[in-house]
Amino acid sequence: MAQSANPTTVTPAITPVPARAIAPWAVFFGVLMLVLLYFVGAEQGATAVISGEAVHEWVHDGRHLLGFPCH
I want to staple 68 with a disulfide (CB 3.0 to 4.6 A). Which of 13, 18, 38, 63 is the partner? Predict the structure, then answer.
């Protein structure tokens, strides 16, 4: 069986995603990351939104991993 000397390849057209489609998701994930950063880094002591030690215990290892002081 002989193969063609000039095989044709088809490259798919890459269409860019418009910024209007990405913007709501970027805002959502940006706010979500800020909330998570707050709970991991600052949810204790004078800035506590939730009283008690429950949040502190849930994110305790994450604090150490990210270098936040907590003791």
Answer: 63
